[in-house]
Design goal:
The structure is a homodimer. In chain A, about 45% of the residues lie in helices and about 15% in strands. Chain A has helices spanning about 15-20, 25-35, 40-55, 60-65, 85-95, 110-125, 140-145, 170-185, 200-215, 230-245, 255-270, 290, 305-320; strands spanning about 70-75, 100-105, 130-135, 150-155, 165-170, 190-195, 225, 250-255, 280, 300, 325-330, 330-335. Chain A is an alpha/beta fold. Chain A folds into three domains: about 15-55, 434 Repressor (Amino-terminal Domain) (Orthogonal Bundle); about 70-170 and about 305-320, Response regulator (Rossmann fold, 3-Layer(aba) Sandwich), CATH 3.40.50.2300; about 170-300 and about 335-345, Rossmann fold, CATH 3.40.50.2300. In chain A, strand 8, helix 11 and strand 9 form a beta-alpha-beta unit. In chain A, helix 5 (about 85-95) packs parallel to helix 13 and helix 8 (about 170-185) packs parallel to helix 9. In chain A, the strands form three sheets. The first copy, chain A, has a six-stranded parallel sheet. A four-stranded parallel sheet of chain A has the order 7-6-8-9, sandwiched between helices. Chains A and B meet through helix 4, helix 5, strand 2, helix 6 and helix 10 of A and helix 4, helix 5, strand 2, helix 6 and helix 10 of B. Chain A binds a DNA duplex (16 and 16 nucleotides) through helix 2 and helix 4.
DNA sequence: TTGAAAGCGCTAACAT
DNA sequence: ATGTTAGCGCTTTCAA
């Protein structure tokens, strides 16, 4: 009969057991695994063999505790279902996979409270780095970020005072450009459709408003927003609401592409001719925009690149590099397609 | 002048410092934070106050090491950009957020090697539980899962020998039902469009094949597949390829909804009347299907529910409950819409 | 309800 | 190239 253990819990193989099987000290096994060159060829192979045979799995907690560091990069984004963030995540993962870092994803669900909570959880893990979406953290969250002892990249936007580093673009300017495009194509009763109304959407609305004010075309009646999450079907609904409120609307800038696709479908159902009677411009340029009928105009944003770059900056910085500049503006690109080709190029008739 | 520390590294506040500030022992502070009822009211408040004032953040690694457990649920899925998994993740997060568990996401990118690697990383963290997509792990990955000392849920499919627990549905049967539907609606030259061709897609193809064999309508020429990831624009391409190969095709069962939307767009461009000349059925029933013109038929799958249920089973099991049954079939639902309404109900003419 | 002592499994620092 | 020693910060166990 076995003696009762002082501490219970299923035993798993430890470094010490590997070490005694290999007849070396624990630290040598540790080195052989973490930094194979630091150990002689013969030993390295012998140890690896024993590790495989015994099915040794290192204990990440013990390692983190002893070394006071981890290979975890925390990522805080407001949505896991939104295509925009899915693309950013793809960039982040792409860059992470080539490195020794692991990504830990936190979903704030557009809640500042949840963001604070997750930040606390993440920081308790001594992450190697942090990527957070946006610049609108709560005061307390911002304080936590400023105190954090790891590098941090804010993504999605550009703004004045980065907590540390930043990669994004100006939503205001991008929306301004899209709205100007509609004006230049001869549309006169240009509407805005916005869902969710998170800070980035708000800034796009401001860009829209500024462009139409300058063109002396702004009509508040043409701004339709909802706090609901954007979907294609919501685009249909908002389009219906817009037409009920303002039947003379002749174009729309949608806060994102899902809405734009919904608007197109609704226009088709109502036999409204796009782009001749009605122009549509989306935001983000998801791949569906290029193949819809008619193809939909949008503002292309560099989402995957944003994720990649953020991760790259983090890894470089963790590696000790000096990062300059700390604020990167990835810009945007207006992609004009059939859905706004009413009056291409020519100035609008009065 | 301070004496040099034996171990360097930025100091952060520890439990002991809180304890001495509160003039109690470390274990009391630990208890006050983890299990407030176990400490007197007065002490609890005093300790909480000090914790807040000093900005104490517990060290997750130390806690994990000492207690040999974590609150991490590892989730392994093959894609972070695929809408299907995004919905599953939403379910997982929804259930996790109501609990004390955190989700750690791993992206296998449809690679068995990557899955093995991630499994190793995850297991080194002593996760409280694991959710893995599919039943087609490599032999070595399956061995790792069987040895793991935490509960595990396989999702997305149902199959004979669960590693532990399982929540999913039969892709074979779902595809069979969709194909039968097209047969019943009077289509005779029914094609299959498949992208990615992962194991679940393969099983859908088998369901398709079986249905058409039984109807004596199978023609291999009508099966168009590609290893590329599915997108709307790929749907357009595959549709073009299908029509080049088999101009007499009169319906298509698409491996997923993105392809189906692409097929619709391509049909519109070619002035092919849907559903009269050509029927379209997708898979998953993303929300866009219901609002497209015409509305697209699809097979609804319960993705968010799958995520929720998997997480729920895990949490219950970690909490010591006995879970029965260990295999849950969530089924599917054929949602017939305009895109297959050629000959509703009536048996096919010969 | 509170405390003292003893590790958890690993790695940093300092040898050799 | 390899070993010795001493913790990392917390929680378990046992005791009061």
């Amino acid at each position: 009969m076995k003696k009762a253990k002082k501490r219970l819990g299923k035993k798993r193989i430890t470094l010490v057991e590997i070490a005694s099987a290999a007849e070396v000290s624990a630290i040598t096994v540790s080195r052989a695994l973490r930094n194979p060159q630091s150990v002689s060829q013969e030993l390295r192979q012998r140890i690896q063999q024993i590790v495989d045979d015994m099915g040794y799995v290192p204990d990440a907690a013990a390692s983190a505790l002893a070394s006071a560091r981890t290979n975890v990069i925390g990522v805080l984004i407001p949505s896991v279902t939104n295509n925009v963030f899915a693309d950013v995540m793809r960039g982040i993962y792409a860059e992470a996979e080539a490195s020794a870092f692991r990504v830990q994803l936190g979903n704030t669900r557009y809640s500042l409270i949840e963001e604070e909570r997750l930040l606390r959880v993440f920081l308790s893990q001594r992450p190697a780095g942090l990527i957070v979406a946006g610049v609108d953290q709560s005061e307390s969250a911002r304080a936590q970020l400023l105190q954090a002892e790891c590098p941090i990249v804010q993504i999605m936007e550009v703004g004045h005072d980065p907590v540390d580093m930043m990669v994004g673009f100006s939503h205001h300017r991008a929306a301004f450009a899209a709205t100007r495009h509609l004006v230049e194509r001869g549309y006169r009763r240009i509407a805005f459709l916005g869902a969710r109304m998170d800070p980035r959407t708000q800034r796009r609305l401001q860009g829209f408003v500024q462009a139409l004010e300058e063109a002396e075309m702004l009509d508040e009646k043409l701004i339709v927003t909802t706090p609901r999450a954007s979907t294609v079907s919501l685009g249909c609904e908002l389009m219906s609401e817009l037409l009920a409120r303002a039947p003379d609307a002749d174009a729309v800038f949608c806060n994102n592409d899902d809405l734009a696709v919904g608007v197109l479908f609704e226009a088709q159902r109502r036999r409204i001719a796009v782009p001749h009677q009605f122009g549509i411009c989306g935001f983000n340029d998801l791949e569906i925009m290029a193949v819809a009928n008619p193809a939909l105009t949008s503002v292309r944003t560099h989402r995957e690149e944003m994720g990649r770059k953020a991760m790259r900056m983090l890894i470089d910085r963790i590696g000790g590099k000096h990062i300059e500049p700390r604020l990167i503006d990835l810009g945007y690109e207006l992609v004009a397609r059939e859905s706004t080709a009413r009056n291409a190029g020519a100035p609008a008739p009065v």
